[in-house]
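(Deposited chain)
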Amino acid sequence: MRTPHIHDEVSSWRAVRLPGVDGPNTVTCATEVGAITVALAAAVVSTLANRGVPGGSGCVVIACPERAPLLGPVLLACGIGSITSWNTRDTQDFSLRRVSSHNHILVDLRVPEDLDDEIEDAITAGPDVMSAATVSLAGLSDALRRQMIAQIDTPVLAACARAMVLQTTPGDVLPT
């Protein structure tokens, strides 16, 4: 069962407002999609490690990457070897099943109305990822408070994803 939580509109993302480093009138925001990006990246890195795929050689397909725009850059910063983006408009030429069969992992961010078939072993924004995203949001907030980071960008999200991987028990996909 899927529970998509990544929204099409930036305005629908929930944000945690944190005091900015440039003074009390500035704000750094940690968005829901940022937290989900961290959890998805951690799940990808852990899954590759569990499958014995050496660092730097993992091949990942992201279906509908526009739903988590920083996921690709964060995965690259985490040491993923290659990323292929796939959108529903690509279906005519290349089915998602065909594209994903030549890669190690599929991160499937399609919404239910776009599902023509569900692909086994895909990483989705389901309940486990949402639970981990809650943990990552707490970690992002703490990192921002302690380090006085001016913005949440790719290196910050990648560092949070790597920290989640370090907290994950071998054989698991995300921390429990």
Observations:
- Helices lie at 32-50, 71-77, 96-100, 127-147, 154-166.
- The mean pLDDT is 79.
- The two ends are 20 Å apart (CA to CA).
- The longest helix spans residues 127-147.
